[in-house]
Amino acid sequence: MNDVINLLKAHKSVRKYKDKAIEEEKIRSIIEAAQSASTSSFIQAYTIISVENKENRAKIAKLGGDQKYIEECPLFLVFCADLNRHKVACDIHDVEMQEGYTESFIIATVDTALAAQNAMIAAESLGLGGVYIGGIRNNPNEISEILNIPTNVYPVFGMCLGYPDEDNDIKERLPMEVVFKKDTYTTDGDLERLKEYDSSIEAYYLDRTKGMRSDTWTGMMARMMSHIPRPHMKAFLEKHGFFMK
Amino acid sequence: MNDVINLLKAHKSVRKYKDKAIEEEKIRSIIEAAQSASTSSFIQAYTIISVENKENRAKIAKLGGDQKYIEECPLFLVFCADLNRHKVACDIHDVEMQEGYTESFIIATVDTALAAQNAMIAAESLGLGGVYIGGIRNNPNEISEILNIPTNVYPVFGMCLGYPDEDNDIKERLPMEVVFKKDTYTTDGDLERLKEYDSSIEAYYLDRTKGMRSDTWTGMMARMMSHIPRPHMKAFLEKHGFFMK
Asked: Which residues form the signal peptide (chains A, B) (predicted)?
């Protein structure tokens, strides 16, 4: 439809990078683009940390699920939801910040994600590729200690970026009718659509692995969702001032 | 730096729209772009509802903070974090979904925001403008009832889109050094930077309002953060299965 939409639709995760640094001006453009994203009531509730220190990278790679590309990628960014500087603003104006509300947690988390997605798109427009790293929530206490992350701030995800040294397939998404509804939430017809999607995903994996892997979307989701997901997150967030009041 | 980054950096909220429908194929491109965003372990944990029904639009506009543009915009999308179809996937494969964990809440909320930001960028690339509507969290119970939103799903935000009938200024963001850190989280020098930013924002409002409004960023944040933010969200989310376990 246009070049921007073609770029968005061409997204695929990239986990293998050329041994080539990203130019400083490109990094600045990526961060500027991130900052240009929408932000709830101008709150700008995020901080982006670029981890250059090699030792810390290695530690985070291990803590983040033993993902080597965290260590190897030219640029590794940690996106933190951040209400710390709003606390500073309250201090400056001698008022008390209302801390620990679920709503503030949502605002800061969404703000962070919108900025990050702009960063990803900006990076891809510059010929880079990357991947989000939810794995930093595997060991958020240790990672927060390494990065010196204070109260009212939490690391939401990481992002590896670099010049691509692999070309993955674009993964077919759910049928549009499953995720896009008119007027009200309804699941009419979705079961059939999910079955068709399962067949399509199954064919994709069979083809890609020459018959070695047979998998479906509902199968993958059932496996994943039947395991307790990172049960330490609640205690970790509370420690960082996000009490879900 | 390139056209995509220029587009990202040119973002401004648009709340006034021409009386012109958005072409169906453009809407489909916007949703396709949304679906192309990164998604945690392929979970695709969101549903987008386009509210066309005029009565419901009017109700939501009122419930969402009496924002007329929710009623008037050509396209109003409600972005919901959605783990309902993953429950269906678990049912299909006869396993029990682990529900109510904070981690799942984060995954679904982030997935939704990434998709939404792609939608916003796609829309802007097509000559449209828009604004996120956090106001749907003012009355999430009523809005969920109108939209028939079930357990394991919650409306994160809305989005108004249309052909712009106003041209707002781009709002200056925080100095990059405040939000972008090397290696560790540090606030060294930030107080000075915030003061400079305050001066710049103050000058902007004075200029724009011909001296009628004097405001600073820390002042706005202090006012906002000293009020309890949507304290009903916790109970609402629990009602919808998000227990923050």
From this structure: none
| Chain B: residue whose CA lies nearest to A1 | B29
Are A39 and A80 found together in one domain?
A: yes
Note whether residue B149 is domain-resident.
Answer: yes
Distance from CA of A188 to the nearest CA of B (A): 12
Supply the ipTM of this predicted assembly.
Answer: 0.98
> B50 with B156, same domain?
yes
CB contact under 8 A, B107 and A229: yes
Please indicate, yes or no, whether residues A32 and A90 belong to a single structural domain of this protein. Answer: yes
Which chain B residue shows the shortest CA-CA distance from A105? B106
**A114 occurs within a structural domain:** yes
User: pLDDT tens, A81-99?
Assistant: 999 999 999 999 999 999 9
Q: Does residue B112 share a domain with residue B199?
A: no
Q: Using one digit for the tens of pLDDT, what is the confidence trace for A90-148?
A: 999 999 999 999 999 999 999 999 999 999 999 999 999 999 999 999 999 999 999 99
Task: Give the nearest chain A residue to B129 (CA atoms).
Answer: A38
- Residue B86 sits in the same domain as residue B120: yes
Determine the distance in angstroms separating the CA of A152 from the nearest CA of chain B, rounded to an integer: 12
In a domain, B131, yes or no: yes
Transcribe chain B into DSSP letters: --HHHHHHHT------B-S-PPPHHHHHHHHHHHHTS--GGG---EEEEE---HHHHHHHHHHTTS-HHHHHSSEEEEEEEE-HHHHHHHHHTT-----S-HHHHHHHHHHHHHHHHHHHHHHHHTT-EEEEEGGGGSSHHHHHHHHT--TTEEEEEEEEEE-BS--PPPPPPPPHHHHEEESS---TTHHHHHHHHHHHHHHHHHHHTTTS----HHHHHHHHHTSPP-TTHHHHHHHTT----
- CB within 8 Å: B218 and A93: yes
Same domain for A201 and A106: no
Range of the domain at A123: 3-169+229-239
User: With contacts defined as CB-CB under 8 Å, which chain B residues touch A234?
Assistant: 101-102, 244-245
The answer to whether the Cβ–Cβ distance between A217 and B53 falls below 8 Å is no
The reply to whether A28 and A69 lie within a common domain is yes
